[in-house]
Specification:
Elements (H helix, E strand, L loop, with lengths): L6 H35 L4 H10 L3 H4 L7
């Protein structure tokens, strides 16, 4: 995408996008770990956890995305 914004603004946009992405990734990881721990406490086997990890869509596709920032 071509833009006529000054380089300083584009740099700020890139930094902000990176921060948002890192925050979202960490929140998603924590949510995912909590789900897996809950499954483990409820008797899930290693095979069950592996299957869940492989089949679970990211929260952004399930409508369960967490607001970040």
């Amino acid at each position: 995408m071509k833009t006529k914004l000054p380089p300083q603004i584009l740099s700020m946009v890139n930094r902000k996008s990176h921060i948002l992405g890192v925050n979202y990734a960490e929140q998603t990881k924590q949510q995912f770990l909590a789900e897996l721990e809950s499954m483990r406490v409820n008797g899930a086997t290693l095979k069950d956890l592996e299957k869940y990890i492989g089949n679970r869509p990211p929260p952004i596709f399930t409508g369960r995305a967490i607001d970040c920032c």
